[in-house]
Structures are given as structure tokens and as C-alpha cells.
Amino acid sequence: MMRRALLLVASAAPSALGHGSLLYPLPRGGVDRDIAPYSTGKNPPGHYPCTCVNGTGPGPCIPAQSCLWFNQGCTIGCPCSGNGTMSRRPNWSSCAKPTVTATNNDPRTRSINRGAKAGSAEDVYKFFPWRAPGTAVPADPCGVAGGDQHGIHQAAGGEYFKTKHAQLGDKGSQVLKPFFSGARWAAGAVVNVSWFIQANHGAMTYTRTLLL
């Protein structure tokens, strides 16, 4: 449970090292929830699941493919490349000549590798989006299905099971129609919000922004 004025702070990330999604209010990214087997809280065989793992599904947990909308290959001050493999290299930037430097250099807010001197060669994550919040340029503000871009399967990209709603590489802002979740909140009210993490591979470099 989280309280009002909730801000799930998020940046487009270097690669999808963690996957998760909202459960309530229902997100637009879970548009496949009306299609079996997603409507039963399951996934096709061999398909990367967005299902909850704490025994709550299906019931209130029908996320469909909502955890598979993301941007990858993103660094500060640069457009997201879509290449998640390159972004794992030390001191890598998706720009040929980075023009933005890290503004978040406080070890308490750098998430990982906090002992390295900011800006040094050992500060291998200095180009990651959270090091200069708001400067990375996502391929799409609503995410890309599977993280792939440019109409081709990108290195270290995700997967997205094609449905009548979307397919791998689709941009969320173009294919995810406006959706009313059913939540009606009054200004100043205390509300409940639920979300889940399906895969947390260490640093959460897959994120989204939601301002309620």
C-alpha cells in the first residue's frame, strides 16, 4: 500500500534488469488481459511471464503482458538505442560523444557502486539514467513492446507475444488506447495502490513513471 501523491519514480533504463507492473489501478500495458490465457492469470507455454508469484492470481492479479513495455539502451542526455547488450559495458553511453554529465553524485542516491569516486573510471554507471534524471530520451514515453526498436530484434531485447492488441516493437503511445481503470480518487484522499516485481536482477534499471 502506498499513499496519495504517489510518484513511482522511473527513468528509461540501460537494460531491462528488472520487470514489474502495477496491478491496481490496472495499467494500459495490461491490455491483453481480455485474451486467454492472460485472462486466467497465465501465459503461453515458454513465454516470459508477468504473473505474480505470491499466490494472489488470478483473482486480483491479472497483469497480462504489462511488465514487457519498457525502453532499453538508454543513458543520460542520449536517445535510447534499444541495445541492452552494449549498455552493460563499463562507462558506456548510447551517444558517440556524451554532452551531459552526472548530476546525481551523492553515494546515498546512486543505487550501486556507491564507493567509486563520482566521474572516475571506476564510476562505471555514471551514464545510467538515474545519474542525471530527466535527461535520457526514451524511444517512447509509454514503453516499447519487448523493448525492441527500429522494427528489428535488438540485442538483449525482451519478448512480446503477439496479440490482436500489439506485437514486438510496437510503441505504447501508438497502440495502447486510453483506458479507465475504474479508480476514482478525490484530491487529498488516501488511496491504495498495488504493484509487483516479476524479476529483480539486482539494480532496478527498468522503470516507469506514474504520477497520481
Task: Supply the number of structural domains.
Answer: 1
Q: If strands are numbered along the chain, what order do they take across the biggest sheet?
A: 1-6
Number of strands: 6
SSE sequence, one letter per element = EEEEHEE
Poorly predicted sequence stretches spanning 5 or more consecutive residues: 1-17, 202-212
Fraction of residues in H or I helices? under 10%
Distance between the termini: 14 Å
Separate helix tally: 1
Mean pLDDT: 77
The Cα radius of gyration reads 18 Å
Q: State which percent range the strand residues make up.
A: 5-15%
Main sheet?
2 strands, antiparallel
Shape: globular
Reconstruct the topology from this structure:
Blueprint: E1 7-8, E2 18-24, E3 69-70, E4 144-145, H1 172-175, E5 194-200, E6 210-211
Short account of what is shown:
The chain is largely without helices or strands and 212 residues long. Helices cover 2% and strands 10% of the residues. The chain has one domain.
